[in-house]
Amino acid sequence: MGKRIAVALTVIVATATACSSSHTTTASTQPGATSTGNSTSQSAGPLNVGKASVPDHITAAGVTPPHGRTYTPPKSIAGNCSADVTDALQAWFDSVPDGSTVSLPAHACYRIEGTVMLEDRHDLLLDGHGATLQAKTAGAGKKRDRNRCQLVLRSSSNITVQDLIVRGANPHAGTSKAAYVADLEAQHAFKLSGDDGVFLDRVQAYDTYGDFVNIAGRKGTPSKNITVARSTFDRSGRQGISFTKSEDVLIVGNEIGNVARSLFDIELDKKTSSARRIRIVANTTGPVRNFWLANKGAGVDVGDVTVTGNVTREASGGGVFVFGPLAGKRGPFTFADNVFQVTGRVSDEGSRGVFYFRNTDHVTIRHNEVHAPPDRKMPAVELHASSDATIAGNKFVGTAKPVLADTASKNVKAS
After folding, report:
1. What is the mean pLDDT of residues 360-368?
2. CB 393 within 8 A of CB 371
3. Could you say which of 101, 194, 259, 359 has the lowest number of CB atoms within 10 Å?
4. Radius of gyration of the chain from Cα atoms?
5. Cα–Cα distance, 395 to 367 (Å, whole number)
6. How far apart are CA 169 and CA 172, in angstroms?
7. Taking a C-beta distance cutoff of 8 angstroms, is the pair 137, 170 a contact?
8. CA dist., res. 135 & res. 167, Å (int)
9. Strand partners, 198
10. What is the rounded CA–CA span in Å between residue 364 and residue 370?
11. Least confident segment among 30-34, 141-145, 155-159, 271-275
12. Domains located in the chain, CATH noted
């Protein structure tokens, strides 16, 4: 946790000019609109948005189809969730050679009260055909473990998991206070640990005590070349998707909602860890209790984070919160062509802005549509000790001012 800092604030308001971007017509037609170049602050009104536009073709880096034979589980492993089959299913997975396709029966249900793990596996396709891995309890005896996840990929490469459903056992998962249980917070649906080349495609996860997807490292090695696409995630007990040691990650075309804490959480596990080249693209998001994107904690090696084309259909408590340590600077961060809604009910370290950056360099915020409640008097962008920021062509609705920056922030351009 960083120390709280008190600094003088300077309001940055660009000279009003005729706007040439597609956002300019609303500035002249909405009552109470205040134009600041190409970024506008307007009174809040009703918001009716569709889903994000998902790319027709998605390429998963580091992933190719296997060329071996296809294996299906034996009928002796109950596929109707009538009994815990963790050990039996694990033993069967272990028997399948690398280079194979694992094909689960369509719409089968496997009760998993422990963890199914693919460790040091390579060139595999796990095709769920709509099958479910389901936990009905928080775990019993030794299995009642903070770190009990449903499916773990560890030190593996070229792994595709598609059309698989994971259901946790959290009866209060979602945005209520009861959703978060500290003793069980790391019971994730999908955990990636030091992997290279993973594609989670058209998967689903519900009712977890932990995150939907946790992307972590192992023994100093980050998870890299990770793609999570066209999937559905609803009702978590902690974060939505978390990044603790990861590089070259694409999160694209997913529907994610009812998140107990922050939707996207970039929080390094160690000062020496990194989170680099993370792209969050064309996702449609629902209710989030805390921030839409949060980046706090240890370390400075966080950057090349690009967030484009996302749509929030229901509000998050806060928007974007990047709180870097005093030593070093995080960045770059780019936010472009997104639609964000916030309630303003969540703040950390005294933050006020929908976008908040502290000790961050190279911030770009372009052509976003941002909605905030006017009574919260939130600045759209708040900068502390941050440099080289460009804010342009945005539509800010219900915010008090476009940019609020302290005197330690340099080279801030708002238009």
Report:
1. 98
2. no
3. 101
4. 22
5. 7
6. 9
7. no
8. 6
9. 159, 226
10. 15
11. 30-34
12. 58-250 (2.160.20.10)
- Distance, in Å, from the CA atom of 316 to the CA atom of 340, rounded to the nearest integer, reads 8
Predicted confidence band of residue 327 (pLDDT cuts 50, 70, 90):
confident
pLDDT band at 17 (very low <50, low <70, confident <90, very high): very low
Angle at 410 between CA 404 and CA 415, to 5 degrees: 55
Closest CA to 61 of 128, 158, 156: 158
What is the average pLDDT score of the chain? 89
pLDDT at residue 49 in the model: 75
Length of the chain: 415
Backbone phi, then psi, for 93, in 5-degree steps? -55, -45
Q: Which residues are within 8 A (CB) of 375 and not within 5 positions of it... i.e. 6 or more apart? A: none
pLDDT in tens, 173-188: 999 999 999 999 999 9
Query: Which of 318, 215, 340 has its CA nearest to residue 267?
Result: 215
Q: Which of 17-26, 141-150, 258-267 has the lowest mean pLDDT?
A: 17-26
**Torsion 401-256-224-249 (CA) sign:** negative
Q: Cα dist. 316→156, 193, 264 in Å? A: 34, 28, 11
SS3 content of the chain, % helix, strand, coil (to 5): 5, 45, 50
Question: Strand, coil or helix: what is 402?
Answer: strand
To which H or E segment does residue 9 belong?
strand 9-12
Q: C-alpha 237: how far from its chain's center?
A: 14
Q: Give residue 196's Cα distance to chain centre.
A: 19
In angstroms, the CA 167 to CA 173 distance is: 11
Question: From CA 144, how far away is CA 113, in angstroms rounded?
Answer: 9
Cα–Cα distance, 133 to 131 (Å, whole number): 7
Note the pLDDT of residue 200.
98
Q: Answer yes or no: are the C-beta atoms of 142 and 177 closer than 8 Å.
A: no
- Say whether pTM exceeds 0.85: yes
Beta-strand pair 151-154/101-103:
unpaired
> By the 8 A CB rule, do 282 and 308 touch?
yes
Q: What are phi and psi of 374, to 5 degrees?
A: -60, -30
Tens of pLDDT along 51-84? Answer: 999 999 999 999 999 999 999 999 999 999 999 9
Query: Whose CA is closest to 117, among 63, 169, 188?
Result: 188
